[in-house]
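Re: the multi-chain job from yesterday

Posting the exact lines I submitted so nobody has to dig through the queue logs.
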Amino acid sequence: MANYMDLIASQKNTKGGIIEAFHAIQKEYNYIPREALTAAAKAFGMSEAKAYGVATFYSYLSVEKRGKYIIRMCESAPCHVAGADEVIKAIEKYLGIKTGETTADGKYTLELTECIGQCQATPVITVNSEPIFNVSPEKIPEILSAYK
Amino acid sequence: MEEKRVLLEYADQINPESAADYIKVGGYKGLEKARAMQKKDLIDEVKKSGLRGRGGAGFNAGMKWSFVPQDAPVKYVVCNLDEGEPGTYKDRIICEKNAQALLEGMAICGAAIGSDQGYIYCRGEYPFVVELLKNAVKSAKDAGALGDFDIEVRMGAGAYVCGEETALIESIEGHRGEPRFKPPFPGVAGLWAAPTVVNNVETFACLPYILVNGAEWFAGIGAAKYPGTKVLTLTGDINNPTYFEVPTDYKLRDVIYKLGGGIKNGKKFKAVQVGGTSGAFIPEENLDTQIDFDSMGAIGAALGSGAVLVLDETRDIVDTVARITKFFEHESCGKCNPCREGTFRMCEMLHKVNEGKASEKDLENILRLAKVMRKASLCGLGQAAPIPVESTIKHFKYEYMRKLV
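And the result, structure tokens for all chains:
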């Protein structure tokens, strides 16, 4: 796992690049650990409070620890009419957690998301930002069991 | 009437990352022409083409560029690829099929306003498009196609409000994506306080074709006041849920029944929401409307991003709209009161209606709140958030009435 100091340093010359640094950190850690946030704030000449404000403004950035696989269910109108509610219930049942939670083994985190721009194949979920198309409650066990 | 492909003519026939592929089908000729022109003549040519912003606001592109002071030492060209409007994926398609046209369009804008630095702000939901664009920029730079114009790709992180141009600028600067007060407009003081042109992907991608074929050619396609083509994305209860590029005088009915192949499972049509989740719901009697900006405006709707969400006769309008109000409640940035509190209360009241607990008084309050939000919100998010609510109360009032206590 890359050191967060190196990840921050790699974006240091990007003007206004704290969000890019957060992305780089999240790619490795799946969330932004407190000490990485502190270091990023310092590197970009921002108060820690302000950096925290940035990190918590955006839905895709998280300051809470998350699982290895982040599953997101789109609940925007096109996916909603295509049956997103039933899919989310199936995922919750399969993983034994509620939306917003992480499984005890630290493997899966379940989140809701707004439109991910794959509306040709609704309903859609993503696993670590990889879209999976035309999902249905029946297909959930097979889809998720592929992520070990 | 058929599709008319301009931006997507070579879809799936060329590698979108490859400048060489694009040059083989006539790419970068427009930029060459633009660079040989005087800046003023170039802006006039774009104005004359009648090209209007494809992001939703429909502002004349050449006019927008003309606000940039020519003598400023640093200027920026920013591409808005934050398409967060639910049901929309046309900018992704344009990038996946013809990314080099976007880069060429940005460089043409750079030549017109005297900028050598561009930024593409891509939504966080499209990390694969970020990679594609980075490779496309490298390919174009290596081929020498962009000359001294540089493009940096930045990735957003899941905030719908960043589609608003000043919020997008704030986000590139590394801040919370909250819209700025206007004026000053970005054309005068935008990214890092320098004059900045922000245009949508589709707007930029039209430019190479305008330069190569001439302003008159473009002005002659589709509707006279909103010329050119528009990429539409069809979703919902439709047989062909895919993308199409059509001239702007194309009729909504033909989008649904000809290109879309009609309603799924042999059901009947109930409503169509055009322009994304902030768009109006349109009933059957208005389907013979052209999709262009002004024709849609005349029926109280908007072309917006070009998303087309079709609902069949079995769909519950109130349930769908209740879901939409939750979207806005979630995406409101919280900077201004009418939107922050308005989207919250609107969501609360719509769910009350949907659960069968509301009275006619609530419906009155919903319409009053809608008016306040439309008039008093700082940016387009809060101003547009009540549109789906108001349009469905107007056209589908019986769906609300039957849920009241």
